[in-house]
Amino acid sequence: MTTPLIDCLQYAQFSASVFEQMHKGGVHAVHVTIAYHENFREMVLNLEQWNRWFEQYPEWIFKGVDERDITEAVESNRTAIFFGFQNPSPIEDDIGLIEICHQLGIRFMQLTYNNQSLLATGCYEDEDTGLTRFGRQVVREMNRVGMVIDMSHSADRSTLDAIESSQRPIAITHANPHWWHPARRNKTHEVIKALTSSGGMLGFSLYPHHLKGGSQCKLDDFCTMILDCAERYGVEHLGIGSDLCQDQPDSVVTWMRNGRWSKDTDYGEGTADNAGFPPHPSWFNNNTHLVNIKNGLLTAGMNDADTKAVMGGNWRRFFASSFKPG
Length: 326
Prior knowledge:
Layout: E1 6-10, H1 16-24, E2 29-35, H2 40-56, E3 61-63, H3 68-76, E4 79-85, H4 96-103, E5 106-110, H5 133-145, E6 148-150, H6 156-165, E7 171-172, H7 189-197, E8 201-204, H8 219-233, E9 238-240, H9 251-258, H10 290-300, H11 304-322
Parallel strand pairs: 1-2, 2-4, 3-4, 4-5, 5-6, 7-8, 8-9
């Protein structure tokens, strides 16, 4: 069976050219962000746009809802698109909307995006109070319906609470180890160890603020870090979640970081002098470049089986066990 190529997080400015690059790059599945701060109705409008794209470009993309769609993608040489939220705002304050969103095809939801939410604490808050009462109920409901808990933008205590509270393994779809590069959004050894020890998945991010050396990060440094993580945490818990923001205008950064909650500009990992999207590393700026990571891992000394696992096999296994009702 062909091992799929899977990227478990992108927020590109999606278009025909991006979909064609997925096809040329042999990318079999992509988890795409369809909500940052949108409410339920606004999120549905984004789904409408995706339905139009599925109708316009059926030779390249189709909607994915479970692991069988990855098999379909491999056999038809197309890309299965899986939906996720980077914030729980689409469920508003209604726990019943979790099941509705799952029925609409949503397979991932972050409990926070940088800030405190109704569910948990984001990584930019000064105090981390962990999961809220509502948050614990949301975790149970996500477990029940088959929606993956994603803690990529959450603070440490909240993440550890989610790992402990969830009856199913959770994911950090796009982040890197804090010990490799001390960005505030990257994850501590304690968090990654707890995540992987419980069967969860870590997707490595290519977003420059998360990389040692930023936009100038070297491919061999990135791949060596993955090999180090494989030794520390087990290769079976590792994948790619690139956080590719290809072709997005800088104005989108304001929406990502500020949403509706702030009149002040929140620069996140950036600075006032670099408030927009940072340039991608030269070896990864579109979907045809995922093969560079594969080749880089092999060059760094990872064997073929482990490389295939990181590039998609592990995510495939995780999807198969995570998207079914619990």
